[in-house]
Request: fold
Amino acid sequence: MRPNNGAITIYQPDGSPVVLSGKSNAKWRERIGNAVPPPAARAIGEQILRTLILNALGTWEMCVNGIWVRTKYNPKEGVLS
Reply:
């Protein structure tokens, strides 16, 4: 059983936790940030901004946006489509 202390823990395929080494985490933050494709990052940012604006106006909405991720896996090509 994996401990849960409220932090997000990333595990390797063998089940061991990923341990970041070094005194600065700037490079790791950069790598993690670069792991999100730009179109996905933009869509996430736009939704966060919209949510913050609506919150500031004292309202909210159910999401009516289309799903912006690919939903089907093509095993012949080995990619999502």
User: Anything to note?
Assistant: Residues 38-80 form one domain. The first helix runs from residue 26 to 34. The chain is about 35% helix and 5% strand.
